[in-house]
Prior knowledge:
The complex is a heterodimer of chains A (about 190) and B (about 450). Chain A has about 190 residues and is an alpha+beta fold.
Amino acid sequence: MIQVKTLVFAAAVLCQLGVPAWMILDRESILRDGVRVKFRVEPLDPRDAVLGRHVRFKIPASEVTLDEAAETPSQVRAYGVLELDQKGFGRFTAVRDEPPEAGVYLGVRVRREGKTGTIQLPFDRYYLPEGVASEAGAGQKQALRSGMVEAHVTLRVHRGDGVIEGLYVREKPILDYLKARTGPNGEEGDMP
Amino acid sequence: MSRKGPDWLLGELPDLVSRGILTPDAADRLRSHYQDAGRPAARQLGLTVTAVFGSALIGLGIILVLAYNWEELSRTLRAAISFSILLIAQGAAGWVVFRSVPSRSWREGTACFWFLAVGSAMALIAQTYHIPGDPSRFLLTWMLLAVPLVYLMRAESAAALYLVGVTVLGGVESDAGEGPLLYWVMLAPVAPYLWSLLRRDRQSPGPVLLVWIGAVSLIFGFGFSISESWDHLHLAAYAGLFSVLYLMGRIWFGQAPRVWQGPLQCVGGLGIFVMAFGFSYGDAWQRLGRLGAKEWNWTDAMPGMVLIGTCLALSVILGWLSLLQGRPQRLLWGSFGAVAFLAHALMLALESTPVPVSLLNLYLLVAGVSVLVRGVRRERIGTVNLGMLILAALVGARFFDTDLGLMVRGIGFILLGAAFLSANAFLVRRFRGLRPLEDETGQTPGEGA
């Protein structure tokens, strides 16, 4: 007869493996089946653009007109309906309480005030190899900080969930951009 | 067993033999018996501590190495590495659990490593997929996944990490403006483990450390539960909490041979002193008075009201238990919650601060004197010094608090210091030779009360 201890141990092991496994499968399925949506990012964090291991960025808040005015300001979970332009950049056009039956949409938190809904996406970091990040050098950080370069993030969006696919600076993946700006021995290249 | 007692006894043996109290043979037998007393326990503790720290450092080191975010590794490979660390930890834990490994250090070290591996697996996958930071969700998932290993491993290191994790989770939730319910609910899963541990052993380092962490966690938990706008509730709730902790400590840890082995009375006694001292100033009450103008909101205030009610009820029950045990002196410190409540009610009713300020000063004065008197009666110089410290703090605070001139204050301090030293010298002379172990009784703040 199987002991209670064995059952508890097996359940604990399965749950502990199951949660990360689910995280992986969920993200992989979004990356595989999701629609690619681009969002422009604001000039990177003025203090810590490259924090050694990740780049912080901010997607500007979007404002949409609500179907019904909110009586008091509140923050709710909802679904933001996305419209893509010709270059693939996304723009929120409406907010729904339930997932729409068709189209591209993201689960978001909406701040409702009167007829205006403000959507702030939670995506704010992109991890980099520590070596590349630290070798990127002060010149690149300065360029990113000052907003001298145009940057955007691409997400894969599927059934209301989104996964970051890449962060691009001047249409180049950030890793390639940083490496191109850093010489073979780590010395800085030209400023962008 | 501690070494202090045996060491003292071994030092006394030659004298006892020379005075004919013990025969040389009996002295040899005692020497042989006590030579290594306490050493196995100390050695075991050392092994356990190094095992826990070692495994924690290895676990954290692996996390840092993987967090390097090797660009050459594919997502699949990085995921595989994250899983392999977790699998190794689970395998080691399974070996300890099912082979019934008796080594305590192995059990504690493995549990610590397993605990960290669960969190690191999730964190590294979150990093691989650039998942936005949601510390509350992350900590909640981690703690829920870690609950079973506390019971499977029967390891205090895992329970300690869990308590720390839940406290951090409560803080994150509080910062996000969420209610305190999650913190209190998350304490529940380890409560049976703590209870069974304390029923079995209340003086070993592991259980004592857990109670220390639990007591400090409760202080934070009360902060999470009371909306910042209700400082009035903070006063009553914390006064009640410290009273309850003190009384519980006296009842369940009263026989602790060392101060650190009485965590509840230490935290409770120190909290009571700090609060009583703080509210012996008029400014603290005036600040409360200003905040009291805010509009009352039952929804915000409800968690704090529940905590105050619970503390008051527990104080009454624990006070009654103390009386049944024939220890009415505990009520002086244990009644601080009621005293603070009364002082607060007086301030609200009279709309003035001198009355509550006087009450708190009187409370500290009575407490200090009673600790001092009790120390003298029981010939415990540590308790005497504690009583004098309380009185000195009170007198010193009032000196700075009043408009007396520098000369008067200076003379006052000199007289106070001289009284301190004289009393100490007198008591040392009086106690010398009577109780060689007078300071090894582990009396804690408030014992004299």
